[in-house]
Amino acid sequence: MSPPEHEMPLMEHLGELRRRIIYVLIVFVLALVGGLFAAGSVYDWLIRSGSAQAFQLNAFSFWDGIGIYMKIAMIIGIAVALPFACYQLWKFVSPGLRPQERSATLRYVPYVLLLFMIGAAFAYFIIFPMAIQFTSSVTKSMGLQETYGIAQYFTFMFNIVLPVALLFELPLLIMFLTGIRVLTPMRLRKWRKISYFLLVFVAVVITPPDFISDFLVAIPLLVLYEASVYLSSVVYRRQLRAQEEREAQLRNFS
């Protein structure tokens, strides 16, 4: 007995999703390999700039150097693969979109890398130095000698930089979900209190436990959310106008 007809589109849909995921993984692996070649230059820049100059970093394991190169390559791989992953997501959902919605949502893809880099720069040049300064001051106040491993330094840095860089994708994500009619600005306004709480919680988790650091990180995240609500309203109004134009054309033809 052949399977029911309504199950065939679902299986094809899952097959298409699997194919898109494989494409993304291939690009990520290629970017990871390329990132290994660039890791040395990135490492030299990170060591010469910023907070690293204040410490004598040490290797406590034979694998520390390789581990740092792999982490740097991973960040590069994520940065390169992220726009491609968003494009594959667009390709996956685009058959269910109207032509106007396809072209509108496709425009978001080039900005994915830009926002990722802005978020990474904000985290590295503003949040990370504050975190280093706070933890170092606490260590010195306890009379402890600061001896840090290179792996611990970079792990601490990446644990701050990567989440913030990804959070800066929030406006594009909201616009995309509005464009495919998953979210509406009314729903985002209804969820404002819960969203504020979650964003402040994230800010507290990724920053040192002092009010100033929490405040300096939480405020940009809340601004990002409000910008996302505004951009969602813009997309939603365009959808309504496009729908009204289609209905007017149908009335004229009838």
Automatic annotation (TrEMBL):
Keywords assigned by UniProt, alphabetized: Cell membrane, Membrane, Protein transport, Translocation, Transmembrane, Transmembrane helix, Transport
Entry's transmembrane regions: 21-46, 66-90, 111-134, 154-182, 194-212, 218-236
InterPro entries xrefs: Sec-indep_translocase_CS, TatC
Membrane topology reported for the UniProt record: Multi-pass membrane protein
Protein localization: Cell membrane; Membrane
Pfam families: TatC
PANTHER family assigned to the protein according to its UniProt record, in alphabetical order: SEC-INDEPENDENT PROTEIN TRANSLOCASE PROTEIN TATC (PTHR30371), SEC-INDEPENDENT PROTEIN TRANSLOCASE PROTEIN TATCD (PTHR30371:SF4)
NCBIfam families listed in its UniProt record: tatC
Subunit structure: Forms a complex with TatA.
Reported function: Part of the twin-arginine translocation (Tat) system that transports large folded proteins containing a characteristic twin-arginine motif in their signal peptide across membranes.
Family recorded in the similarity comment: Belongs to the TatC family.
Record protein name field: Sec-independent protein translocase protein TatC
Gene: tatC
